[in-house]
Structures are given as structure tokens and as C-alpha cells.
């Protein structure tokens, strides 16, 4: 298989529809001398020929961890085309992941199980299925990728998603809980703001998401990046993703793309409640079409199930990712409240 035959969306197409025909393990050279290695269906690793003078970054872009979140998949596939066709050069190491290929093929969030609840080893805590196997495989690729970074070099992971429902803040970031002495990074706020993102949600506890895995296990700057709304392939208004596309491109192709932002100008929330569905009869008590970040008065009943009532605890407490149909034991709703940051790392 030639490099050209992987361009113009073909790497993703072959990965989705005839993964067995991919020459996994094969390495190709790009025009600027960079190499691209096919690690597995939907996973490529790119290594620059000439390393950035300001310091090599080790960057993971993942998309399609949920199969129906297509805009990030289209952005990443176009980015790969730009690299293969020589429209952009590469200055940093890049691991590019198209996550749940079978779920993309049925236009669903997942086939058997939500892959974004299976990281940090959670994939091993239950009977095997394709999503558990893929989560384990992706962890192994990320581990091997970051193993080549020295202590001073930046490790970054943007796990790109789109949200199921409308949102009062169209683009937002879930920032994993930091329990290792690190603070949130001013440089990362600058980059994410350049992606067009105004709203940031600071997690209050560990999770089993992909971005938390990279952050907690590898001390990467890892984030779940919500860029817009779920739509079928081909139906995204790509003009709404232009800032993200441009920033993701510049980060890998410039020596040190480091836009700044005044964090006081951003909208910051912290997670106040993580409400997990415990029973079959779990009910949300607001409109089905209430957008993310709709806020409520203290005492408002937000959700209930036999034996439990979940209320807003503060005026202005807002809902994010409500979904009554998640598997028992999984997160059905987050509530968030406004916050500020006292301390930041560079
Ligand atoms: O819109 C929704 O309900 C879900 C969108 C989505 O997939 N969000 C991620 C967030 C992960 C995190 O909390 O870091 C997810 O639920 O997996
Ligand atoms: Zn998602």
C-alpha cells in the first residue's frame, strides 16, 4: 500500500471498512522527512525529521472515542491528509487516534459499552468486549508514545468530542482533576482559548476517561474538548470549527505555538455534584431539550430515582451532560458552579 493511497480520507476509510488490509507496522516518509507509522487501524504515529528548537512536544490528538461525534473525526482526518500531502510540515511528535471505528460505522456513541469510561485500567474490570480491548490497546499506544518524552518535554493530549445536546456554551473543556501537586496550566488555557473555547469545567475527582488517564498516569496536560454538537458525517458546519482546526494545525507545525489569554476573562466552573444512575427508574426533572449549562435555584429537583432525590444545592448550579439512559452505575448528570483559580502553573 502506498502513502498516497492513505491520503484524502483513505486511512480512516480503510481503518473503518477493511482494517485487515492495512499494513500495520509499516513506516512511510513524508516530503519534509517526517515519518508516519501505521500502528493499528485508526492509529498513526508521526515523528518530525527536524525537531523544534524551542523543545519537542509529544502531542496526542484523539477523536471518535464516541463513534457519532463526527466533527473532530473530520478535523483529524483532514489534518492527516494535510500532513501526507505536504500542505503542512511537522515540528513535534504526534499520535493521532480515531477511537471507536465500529461505532462510527453504525453512527452510534458506542457498540456495547461507553469507551470513555474504560480507561485507567477500567477495561480490565469486566468481561472482554471490543470497546474494552480497544481502550487497553489505546492505553498501550499512549504509554509507548509518552515513554519517549524526557522529563522537561511537554506531553499534551486533546481528546476531541462533541456534545449530545445544545449548550449555552457551545464549546467547553472538561479539565481532569489534578491530585499530583500540579495546577492548571496558563499555557493550556491560552491554547484552548485560541481553539475558540471560552468555558472551562474543573473536575473535582478522578474518572475513567481517556483524558484523565493521560493526565493522571502520564502527567500529560490532558483535556476532554467539547467542540460543538453531535451530527452525522458530512452534516457539520465546519466554519464553526475553524479556530480549533487552525490551532490544532499550528500546534504541531510551528516551533512553539503559544497564544496567551487572561484567565480572568474566561468562564470557569467547578463540578459540584456527579450524579450516577443507580436504578432503572432514573428520571431527570427538567425539559428534554434543556441545554447544557442551564442553571437552577437551590432546592430545585434535578433528578430522582427510587430512594434518592438530587437537588441543586446552590443558586446558579448548572447541569452538564444530562443523560438518563446511561448504564446503571454510570454518570447521568454533572452539576457545576462558577469558580475562580487562585494558582496556576505555566
Ligand atoms: O453530551 C454528552 O452528554 C456527552 C459528551 C461527551 O462525550 N462527553 C465526555 C466528557 C468526558 C469527561 O468528563 O472528561 C463523556 O461523557 O465521555
Ligand atoms: Zn464524546
UniProtKB/TrEMBL annotation:
Gene3D superfamilies: Zn peptidases (3.40.630.10). Pathway: Amino-acid degradation; L-arginine degradation via AST pathway; L-glutamate and succinate from L-arginine: step 5/5. GO terms for molecular function: hydrolase activity, acting on ester bonds; succinylglutamate desuccinylase activity; zinc ion binding. One of its GO terms (biological process) is L-arginine catabolic process to L-glutamate. Binds 1 zinc ion per subunit. Residues 265-338 form the AstE/AspA barrel-sandwich hybrid domain. Its cofactor is Zn(2+). It catalyses: N-succinyl-L-glutamate + H2O = L-glutamate + succinate. SUPFAM superfamilies: Zn-dependent exopeptidases (SSF53187). HAMAP family: Arg_catab_AstE. PANTHER family: ASPARTOACYLASE, SUCCINYLGLUTAMATE DESUCCINYLASE. Belongs to the AspA/AstE family. Succinylglutamate desuccinylase subfamily. This is Succinylglutamate desuccinylase. It comes from Marisediminitalea aggregata.
